[in-house]
Write a structure and sequence with these properties.
Layout (H helix, E strand, L loop, with lengths): L1 E3 L6 H18 L5 E2 L8 E4 L6 H6 L13 E8 L2 E8 L2 H16 L2 E3 L2 E3 L12 E4 L5 E6 L15 H13 L4 E4 L6 H5 L29 H17 L6 E2 L12 H7 L24 H17 L6 E3 L11 H22 L5 E4 L1 H6 L2 H8 L7 E5 L22 E5 L13 H12 L4 E6 L8 H12 L6 H13 L3 H15 L10 H4 L17 H7 L3 H20 L9 H34 L5 H22 L7 H9 L8 H9 L9 H25 L10 H14 L13 H11 L1
Parallel strand pairs: 1-2, 1-3, 3-5, 9-10, 9-16, 11-12, 12-13, 13-14, 14-15, 15-16
Antiparallel strand pairs: 4-5, 4-8, 6-7
Helix pairs in contact: 1-3, 4-6, 14-15, 15-18, 15-19, 18-19, 18-25, 19-20, 20-23, 20-25, 23-24
């Protein structure tokens, strides 16, 4: 048997041919020969439709049942004069790749996950008896990678070419077709304005850097980041993927205007009324000045020339900001911006659709304003990209925008703000909304658009299944199927763990409150939940179903999950999938328990301030939460995915890293928005912050002064703790011996 290569210069077909040869060899040990001419006597694997494969035209009467230039594909077996023929063909290059990956899953037991493949060794693979024809429900199946830094597993900006190649291959295995690198402007200003903007030194702090997630100091030289982006984009295009080109008013926290440009070009700015990105490097240039618009357009044109492909465009508009206290004036300015952006795309790239990101719809606009904006858009050229469905904006989602059944749109899941690197999701809600999308012929796609990548393996499985064709399966069914494909002989015991864990996973996630780290958000105090008169306090107890129900319902599930994990054999942790997934499950269980106990503590303090006898309960909960934070650090230490130091070592693996970047990394993780579940952050910051709060609270209890709730010392203590953390190398947090899985789980069980 040999592989009959298609006769085309299309790169994706070359990739597809090599993928078949490589996977066949991985499975059987046999390296098939690739030939360009058919044989009349040998078995053949025929790659490509008649559009690129003359043999198909000559041998298949009526041709293969796939539409041209589509993502449809077929896997068809034929007998011919005593030999076996296998046709693997798609309507275009990427769908031919889909056919090949699908074949190995069906016939050889291969399964594909973001963190690796499951491959069974076999002597041979049966190529007979196949008659598969696949058609996607959605034209666009999109995934986005974002611009935060922190833990390498979750942060696409950390990845080098090997990681990106693996990711792009997984995109193809998942039958997706649109991917987007939303990771900043990189060296685009240097490419677009070489006489104005110079490359920064990779030995210094970036001139535009401020603090927190706004500290955009690079870890690798900007010149290399440009080279890397070129390699990544070239490989993605060789797989026939779509990358939307950013256009319009792109200035944002992750794509700041360089100081060189500000000083030499001196752009004027729109006057913001909102505080976000209010530094000059983050302000939007005044689009009423045509010169500023031309410079924005030059950035897009340069990206296309250096890296991209003008097949599709994307704009955030004037997102995440307001520009006038008068809503009418603010809305008119945003409409004007959309008109100018659309005009640029339609004049210069008339055949390319434009994605209108709905982030600003969710973030800054009311439903009636959105309905007015959508009247601007030509349904032949524009698509509403809504990736906020699961954020549950009350009375402000796609069903309130007057787009269903009227104009093209894409259904999307946001899933994870920066702190939410754990397993979660209201799948019942998402699935019900997805039914609306599936039944609307104007819904053209499904997108996964989080601030984190790979935070939740189960959500990725849910997305990749439904993006191709919604199945209306429950998350329990999807989890069972994932266990079957992912764990092999350990399928049953792992599904038992997942089944016990799923109720915990479904506990409420409201905005960034999914993690207690966001309740540690502070400009004035450590604990947002301890803003004692906070208007959202009553909602908090309600959304958790009441403390009594929680104790009866969810704590037993958590304990059962821990017991099942405890009973796993020790040698099972040598299996990477199980080790990672158990660590993720444990992280989520402990996080949810801490979140609950923090809420419970806050209510006890509220009742104490009202004169109720809560002192003993408060003292008990203070001790308990302090203990749980220590156990949480031990839990995170079980896997290097949760280590900032490991992420730093990975960055240093292939090339030198900016000497200032370790502190930049700390800045990027320990800030009001991005506080995430990182081992060093818990050890070096979160535990110490809570100790300060505990000491402060005990003084209040000892004096029994319910009115003395002065927290003015907290910001000073917060800054002291963080500066101390920055002075300690990340490596130092890993000098002490850590507990293994068994010891950690036993300690957790005793704490529950």
């Amino acid at each position: 048997m040999f592989i009959l290569a298609p006769k085309t210069e299309g790169k994706a077909y070359e990739v597809a041919t090599n993928v078949f040869r490589d996977y066949y060899e991985k499975i059987t040990g046999v390296k098939l020969e690739i030939k360009t001419e058919p044989s009349s006597s040998e078995d053949m694997v025929v790659i490509g439709s008649e559009a690129v494969q003359p043999f198909v035209y000559k041998s298949v009467v009526g041709g293969l049942p796939i539409r041209c230039d589509s993502d449809e594909y077929c896997i068809i077996s034929r007998k011919d004069n005593g030999r076996n023929l296998l046709f693997l063909a798609g309507g275009r290059g990427r769908s031919t790749l889909y056919a090949i990956y699908d074949f190995f899953e069906r016939q050889a037991g291969c399964h594909y996950f973001w963190d690796g493949d499951v491959i069974e060794k076999r002597e041979s693979i049966d190529i007979t008896g196949l008659n598969v024809y696949e058609v996607p429900r959605f034209t666009y199946r999109a995934i986005r990678y974002f611009a935060h830094r922190g833990l390498g597993r979750f942060q696409a900006e950390h990845w080098d070419f090997d990681e990106w190649k693996k990711e792009i291959d997984w995109i193809c295995k998942s039958r997706l077709n649109v991917f987007m690198l939303r990771i900043g402007i990189d060296d685009l200003f240097q490419k677009a304005f070489p006489d104005v903007v110079s490359y920064p030194s990779n030995e210094d702090i970036l001139p535009e850097a401020t603090s927190g997630f706004n500290n955009r100091t690079t870890f690798w030289p900007l010149e290399y980041r440009g080279e890397l982006q070129k390699k990544v984009m070239d490989y993605a295009f060789s797989c026939d993927l779509i990358h939307p080109e950013d256009c319009g008013t792109m200035t944002h926290w992750y794509s700041r205007t360089p100081i060189d440009f500000l000083e030499k070009v001196k752009p004027t700015f729109l006057s913001q009324t909102s505080k976000s990105q209010s530094e000059q490097t983050g302000l939007v240039w005044d689009i009423l000045d045509e010169k500023n618009l031309r410079n924005y357009e030059k950035l897009t044109d340069t990206h296309i020339k250096e890296y991209g492909n003008p097949e599709m465009f994307h704009t955030i508009g004037l997102a995440e900001r307001t520009y006038n206290e008068d809503r009418r004036a603010n809305l008119d300015l945003k409409k004007y911006a959309y008109r100018k952006i659309i005009n640029y795309v339609s004049e210069k790239y008339p055949n390319a659709p434009l994605l209108i990101a709905a982030w600003d719809f969710f973030f800054c606009l009311e439903s009636d304003e959105i309905r007015e904006i959508t009247q601007l858009f030509n349904p032949e050229k524009t698509i509403i990209l809504d990736y906020t469905v699961d954020l549950k904006a009350e009375n402000n989602d796609f069903e309130n925008w007057d787009i269903v059944g009227k104009m093209p749109w894409i259904f999307g899941i946001f899933h994870a703000y920066e702190p939410q690197n754990h397993i979660h999701g209201d799948y019942e809600y998402i699935t019900e909304k997805l039914k609306v999308a599936d039944n609307d012929a104007f819904c053209k796609g499904m997108a996964f658009w989080p601030e984190l990548s790979h935070s939740d393996t189960l959500m990725l499985e849910y997305f990749r299944e439904n993006a191709w064709k919604p199945q209306n399966r429950s998350i329990n069914e999807i989890a069972a199927d994932m266990c079957h494909r992912r764990y092999g002989e350990d399928e049953e015991r792992m599904f038992e763990i997942w089944n016990a864990f799923l109720p915990t996973m479904k506990l409420p996630t409201k905005e960034r409150m999914a993690s207690f780290f966001d309740v540690l958000k502070t400009e004035a105090i450590f604990l947002r939940l301890f803003q004692f008169e906070h208007e959202r306090q009553p909602d908090c107890e309600k959304c958790w179903g009441g403390f009594e129900d929680y104790e009866k319902t969810f704590i037993p599930d958590m304990k059962k999950t821990l017991l099942l994990i405890r009973d796993l054999p020790e040698d099972i942790y040598s299996k990477p999938f199980i080790r990672r997934d158990v660590a993720d499950i444990l992280k989520t269980v402990v996080m949810k328990k801490i979140q609950y106990s923090f809420i419970k503590l806050s209510y006890s303090i509220l009742r104490w301030r009202k004169g109720e006898n809560e002192e003993e309960q408060i003292r008990t909960l203070l001790d308990y939460n302090e203990k749980m934070l220590c156990l949480f650090a031990d839990t995170l230490a079980l896997h290097e995915d949760n280590s900032m130091y490991h992420s730093l070592l990975e960055l240093q693996k292939n090339r030198p890293v900016n000497p200032h970047f370790e502190n930049t990394l700390k800045d990027n993780v320990i800030n009001w928005y991005c506080r995430t579940s990182a081992y060093e952050a818990v050890k070096g910051v979160y535990q110490k912050e809570f100790s300060v709060f505990k000491e402060w609270m005990i003084k209040r209890l000892n004096s029994n002064d319910v009115n003395n709730m002065d927290m003015s010392s907290f910001p000073i203590e917060k800054e002291r703790i963080f500066e101390e953390f920055k002075s300690v190398p990340l490596k130092e947090f890993h000098n002490s011996e850590k507990s293994g899985y068994k010891a950690v789980i036993e300690n957790l069980l005793s704490a529950f």
